[in-house]
Structures are given as structure tokens and as C-alpha cells.
Design a protein that fits this description.
CATH superfamily: TorD-like
Distance between the termini: 14 Å
Shape: globular
Radius of gyration: 18 Å
Number of helices: 10
CATH architecture: Orthogonal Bundle
Helix content: 55-70%
Strand content: under 5%
Amino acid sequence: MTDGRKTNDAEIALCRSGIYEALTLGFRPPTEETVRRLISNEQNSMFAELVSIIDENLMEDVSDLAVEVDADLVDKLESKYYNLFGHSARSSVPPYETEYGDKNLFQQPHQLADISGFLTAFGLELNVAKHERIDHVACELEFMCFLTRKEAYAIQNKKSAMLKETLKAERSFLKDHFARFTPTFSHLCIKEDPGGFYGNLGRLLRNFVQFECDKFNLKSGSEKLHLRSSVEVDECYDCEFSGDVKELAGEGNTMEQF
């Protein structure tokens, strides 16, 4: 911390949640909010200060997201976003977990059901109207954002049972899902957009996922997972916080604007 005070566990959890929140925004289709919160100098500097609380090595990754802002930036980002991530699973950089690492076509519904089970266990709802799959990287980032915010809430309110179950879920979800495919996803972002916003965002994601794996004594996934054959799932999902989750996320949230 800049004031020399030792950072407590709740503050660290909130910082981690803030990073997950920023990455969620970054891997959604770009808007003016993307530019304001991740790219503009003032907000980018605040974001860099946030990440320095847990790992100063991440500051450079955040700073690299800042570019000169102009009136056409959102349009430029949108063009690059859809060029990389596409309108379907079979883009140059598939943003869906179940496109990575298993040739067994019957494995995909099982993985989707398992992800859904994680969310349902914590009172989360799925918004099918948004036509996005539940295994989209932004959806999984949002779930981890929620879990880390819940971790901070449990610490602040001395809810030991809640804390234990939340940490268990974080570790399990990282191991079985998020940290399994994001190293390859990040590698593809860096490869396909070297020096660009999404390449730099991919590098931040890769390094932050490694930080999270180290925290839980986990081995992150390979950067060289193969991609599944070109078969898509008909049902598409997007994750949305339930009323209970919104209440938890809002309580004690000091990282809203990074």
C-alpha cells in the first residue's frame, strides 16, 4: 500500500475482485466504458495502482493497455474484437472454454453443466436472452469476480463457514475450468494481436491467472491445448448476478472504479 500500511486479507480479495472485474469488461464487446475504465490515462493509472497492491509485476501489463484515445477508438476496438473473437466459437481466438483441449464431443455438455452447477450453487442466474454461452471467458471472469468479492465479504464479517466454501469453490473452479484453458486463450490473444489492446489484455490475463494459481498452489493449464473440431452447441448463455449476488457484491465494495 502507498501509505505503508499492511494490506489485510479482505483488501487483497477486493483487489483481486477488481482485477477480475476489469478483465470481464475487457473481454466483453468494447464500449465507451471500456475506454474510460481501462484505456484512458486517469483510470488506467488507478487500475495500475490497484494491481500493485497484490503484485507490482502486473503494473506494466496494465499500463500497456493505455493508448491515445480518439473519437474512433471504440469502433477500432470493436472491429478488432470481432475479428479476433468472432460471432461464433470458431474464431481465430475462441473465447469459449469448451473449445479447448478435448476431442470428445460428449465432453462439452458435461463441462457446460459443471460450470452451470458452480453458478447455481452460489445463487447466480443465467440470462439466456443475451445469447452468450456460459463458458465464455467474460462469463467465467465475472464468476471469479463474484467469488472474490464474496471472499472479502466473508472475511470482513467473520463468516468462517462462508469463507471456507468460497475459497474451496475458487480453487476448484480455477483448477477444473478457468485456469485450464486461459493460458492457451491468452497465448492466442498475444499471438494474433501482438502489441495491440487485446494482445496486451491477454498478457495481463495470463500473468494474473498464474498469480491466482500460485495463491492456491495449483498448476496452470498448458499454452498449447488443441482446439475442438468445428461443432457448436445450440444453447447459448450469459451469466447475470441474481439479486442476492448483487447485494453481496455491493457491500464493502471499494473497487468499483478501480
